[in-house]
Write a structure and sequence with these properties.
DNA helicase activity; alpha/beta; 21 strands; EC 5.6.2.4; 23 helices; NA-bd_OB-fold; 7-stranded parallel beta sheet
Length: 678
C-alpha cells in the first residue's frame, strides 16, 4: 500500500505526475481515491422517464447516420434507434467521425438527456453492443489536468489487483459484525466497481462509519489525554461572594443560564483545564454567564481575560462588566489597538504584577509583551472570528488556564459534535423573560417604497434602522441591490430629514469603527451596510431592519443579522425584501417569518444548504471527509461518537491486537502530542 504508483504496470512518470496533482502518490492513495458520485446507468423505460432526465437506453440502429456541420469544428450526427417499443432520434454533437461506425442493425447503448416532447436523446456517451453486467453504476472521480475517467478506473483496477489479499482492515471483526459492514476488500470493490446499487450502498455505509469513527476516536483521545495529564489550574472560588454577585445582577438568571453556570463552576474547581464551547442565541445571556465565570476566577485569586473581535464589541463588554463587577472591587482594564502608549504601558505593568484582575480587549491581548501574573480563565467571544493560532497564543499567556469559547451563531448539535468534538459544549437554549420577539415580514422588492414609509414612522418616533445589502458595488452577474446605490436612494427618499451612514468591508478599519460608533451613539439614524454588522454591536435604540435581496443569504446569517435589532425596550421589526426563484429559497423566507429560535433555524439551514455556511474556512476545525456527510449521515456520526467514547475508555482498546490499526491511526495523526493537547 505504501509503494509509489509507478510500481503499477502502465503508470509512468507523466501519469504519476498527473496523479500527484490529485494528491495520489502511493498505491494506497489510489485505492482510497473514492468517486464523488456514481452514475446510474440502469436501463429505463422511456415511457416512465421525465423530461430532461439523464437516461441510459439500449437499442438497434434503424437508419443511416446523417451529419450536419455548422462552423469549423461543430457538427451534429443523428440516427434513428429502436429502444424497446420507442423509435427515437439519437443526436451526437461534434462526433461526426462515428458516421462509419454506426450502421443499421447494430445494437448500441447510449446515455444522455431525454427530450420527451421531441422524442430525442442528446447523447453524452455510448458504447457498441448491449450493456454488460456490472455497468449499472459507474463511478465518477473528481479529476483535473486532462485526466480521463476511464484512465483513472484502469489505474485503480490495477492497484486493487496488486493489493488483493494483502489489505489489512482497520475495523475490527467485532464492529464489522455488529453493523453488518463489508470487509475492506469487498467495500473497495463496491466503491470503484460495484455489481449493483446494493453493493454501492453497503460499501459507502462502511466507509462513512470508518471515517466518522476515526475522527471521533481522535477527539475522544484528546479528551482522555487532557484529563490524564492533569494539566490545569484548580480554582477554589468563594461561593458566598459568587452568590452575592449573582443576586446583585439586575435580572433573574434563566434555567439555561443556571445550568451552564453550574457546568462552568464545577470545571473551574477541577485540576484539568476547561476546554468548552458556549453556544447561545443573540440575547440569551452569554455575557452574564461569562461575568459569573470571570468573577469566580477572580475570587480564587487568579486573573481573567476576555478577547472580542472588534474594538466596539470590546468596549461594550467592558462597559457592561464594569457596571456589574466594579462594585465588587474587581480591577478592570480595556486593552485595544487604540490604547495610547503610556496607558498601555501602565496596564501591562499592572497585569504583570497582578494589580489588574480582568482585562478585556481585541487582538491586542495576544501581543508578545502582554504578560499576566496568574491567568486563570480565558474567554474568546465570537470565537469563529479568530484563527486557531490567535486563540492558542492567548491560551499560552498563562499556565494552562481554563478556556471558554463563546459564539452567538447557533450551531446545530449535528455539527457541534463534529467540528468541536474535543470540546465540551454548553448551550443556552432559553431566552430571558420579557424579551420581545422580532416581528419578521417577507415581501417582494416592488413593495420597497411602502417599506421605506414604514421605516420612516419608526425614525420619527426617535428609533434607528439598519438596511443590509449583500454587495458593495454593482455587479453585471448578480441582479442585487448594492450598498452604495441603496445609500443614495435612501438619502434622496428622506431628503435630509434623517442622517444616513454607509458601511462596508472595503472601508479602512478605523473608518468602520467611526461609522459604527456614530450610529451606536445616535448620530446616524439609518445605517446602510453590508454584512459587516453581523456580529457584535449593541444599539438598543435600533428597532427596524431591512434586508435587501434576502434570498442570497442562508438562514443562519439572516438570523444573525436580524439579531442586531430587538435589543432594547421597543418593539422591533425585520423586513426581508426577496424574490426567490426556487422552492428552497421560498422555504427559507417562510421559516424566517415563523420563528425567532436560532437553533431551529440553524437545523433548517443545515437541512436546506449543508454545512458550508457554518464553517467556510479550514481554520474552523471542520474535518474534510472523503465519503461521509455530517448532515445526511448524522445517525452514523452519532453512532461512531458513542462507539469511540466506549473504545477510548476501555482497557482492551489500548492493549488488544485487533485494535492496533485504529491505535496506529490515532498515533500517526499527532493528536496525542503535547503541542496538540495544549
Amino acid at each position: 500500500m505504501t509503494e509509489p504508483v509507478t510500481a503499477l504496470k502502465g503508470i509512468g512518470k507523466e501519469a504519476a505526475g498527473s496523479l500527484e496533482n490529485l494528491g495520489v502518490r502511493t498505491v494506497g492513495d489510489l485505492v482510497m481515491m473514492f468517486p464523488y458520485r456514481h452514475e446510474d446507468n440502469r436501463l429505463k423505460d422511456l415511457a416512465e422517464t421525465p423530461h430532461e432526465e439523464r437516461v441510459t437506453i439500449e437499442g438497434r440502429v434503424e437508419s443511416e447516420p446523417s451529419v450536419f456541420f455548422s462552423g469549423k469544428n461543430r457538427s451534429r450526427l443523428q440516427i434513428r434507434m429502436l429502444a424497446g417499443r420507442h423509435l427515437v432520434k439519437a443526436v451526437f454533437f461534434n462526433q461526426h467521425y462515428l458516421k462509419h461506425r454506426l450502421t443499421p442493425g447494430m445494437t448500441i447503448t447510449v446515455t444522455g438527456k431525454w427530450d420527451r416532447g421531441r422524442q430525442v436523446i442528446n447523447v453524452s456517451s455510448f458504447k457498441e453492443g448491449p450493456k454488460q453486467a456490472g455497468e449499472d453504476f459507474e463511478p465518477v472521480y473528481s479529476l483535473k489536468g486532462g485526466m480521463h475517467q476511464k484512465t483513472v478506473r484502469r489505474y485503480i483496477r490495477a492497484a486493487l489487483d496488486a493489493v488483493a489479499g494483502d489489505l489489512p482492515d482497520p475495523l475490527p471483526a467485532e464492529l464489522l459484525e455488529k453493523y453488518k459492514l463489508p470487509g475492506i476488500a469487498e467495500a473497495l470493490e463496491g466503491m470503484h466497481f460495484p455489481r449493483d446499487g446494493e453493493h454501492v450502498k453497503h460499501a459507502r455505509r462502511r466507509f462513512v462509519y470508518e471515517e466518522f469513527l476515526g475522527y471521533q476516536l481522535k477527539m475522544q483521545a484528546i479528551k482522555k489525554a487532557r484529563k490524564e495529564t492533569g494539566k490545569g489550574t484548580e480554582l477554589h472560588y468563594d461561593l458566598d461572594k459568587l452568590r452575592a454577585f449573582i443576586d446583585s445582577l439586575p435580572f433573574e438568571l434563566t434555567g439555561a443560564q443556571k445550568r451552564v453556570v453550574n457546568e462552568l463552576c464545577a470545571e473551574l474547581k477541577e485540576p484539568v483545564r476547561m476546554n468548552r464551547l458556549l453556544q447561545g442565541d443573540v440575547g440569551s445571556g452569554k455575557t452574564a454567564v461569562a461575568a459569573i465565570a470571570l468573577y469566580a476566577t477572580i475570587t480564587a485569586g487568579a486573573q481573567g481575560a476576555l478577547m472580542a473581535p472588534t474594538e466596539i464589541l470590546a468596549e461594550q463588554h467592558a462597559q457592561t462588566l464594569a457596571d456589574w463587577l466594579e462594585p465588587f472591587g474587581v480591577r478592570m482594564a480595556l486593552l485595544s489597538g487604540s490604547t495610547k502608549a503610556k496607558a498601555r504601558r501602565i496596564i501591562l505593568e499592572k497585569l504583570g504584577e497582578g494589580e489588574i484582575d480582568l482585562v478585556i480587549g481585541t487582538h491586542a491581548l495576544i501581543q508578545p509583551d502582554v504578560a499576566f501574573r496568574k491567568l486563570g480563565l480565558v474567554i474568546t467571544d465570537e470565537q469563529h472570528r479568530f484563527g486557531v493560532e490567535q486563540r492558542r497564543v492567548l491560551k499560552e499567556k498563562g499556565e494552562d488556564p481554563d478556556v471558554l469559547f463563546m459564539t452567538a451563531t447557533p450551531i446545530p448539535r449535528t455539527l457541534a459534535i463534529t467540528a468541536f468534538g474535543e470540546m465540551d459544549v454548553s448551550i443556552l437554549d432559553e431566552m430571558p423573560a420579557g424579551r420581545q420577539p422580532i416581528e419578521t415580514y417577507w415581501t417582494k422588492r416592488e413593495a420597497f417604497p411602502a417599506v421605506l414609509k414604514r421605516m420612516g414612522r419608526e425614525l420619527q418616533q426617535g428609533r434607528q434602522a439598519y438596511v443590509i445589502c449583500p454587495l458593495i458595488e454593482e455587479s453585471d452577474k448578480l441582479d442585487v441591490q448594492n450598498a452604495v446605490d441603496m445609500y443614495e436612494q435612501i438619502r434622496q427618499y428622506f431628503g435630509g430629514r434623517f442622517n444616513v451612514g454607509l458601511m462596508h468591508g472595503r472601508l479602512h478599519p478605523d473608518d468602520k469603527e467611526a461609522v459604527m460608533r456614530e450610529f451606536s451613539e445616535g448620530g446616524l439614524h439609518v445605517l446602510v451596510s453590508t454584512t459587516v454588522v453581523e456580529v457584535g454591536v449593541n444599539v438598543p435604540n435600533a428597532s427596524f431592519m431591512i434586508i435587501s435581496d434576502a434570498e442570497r443569504f442562508g438562514l443562519a446569517q439572516l438570523h444573525q443579522l436580524r439579531g442586531r435589532v430587538g435589543r432594547g425596550a421597543h418593539k422591533s421589526y425585520c423586513v426581508l425584501l426577496a424574490d426567490p426563484k426556487t422552492e428552497i429559497g421560498k422555504e427559507r423566507m417562510q421559516s424566517m417569518t415563523e420563528t425567532n429560535d436560532g437553533f431551529r433555524l440553524a437545523e433548517k439551514d443545515l437541512e436546506l444548504r449543508g454545512p458550508g455556511d457554518f464553517f467556510g474556512k479550514k481554520q474552523s476545525g471542520m474535518p474534510d471527509f472523503k465519503v461521509a456527510d455530517p448532515v445526511h449521515d448524522y445517525r452514523a456520526l452519532n453512532t461512531a461518537r458513542l462507539d469511540a467514547e466506549q473504545l477510548i475508555a476501555s482497557e482492551s482498546f489500548w492493549n488488544d491486537p485487533e485494535y492496533e490499526p485504529l491505535r496506529t491511526m490515532i498515533e500517526q495523526s499527532g493528536v496525542l502530542s503535547d503541542e496538540r493537547i495544549d
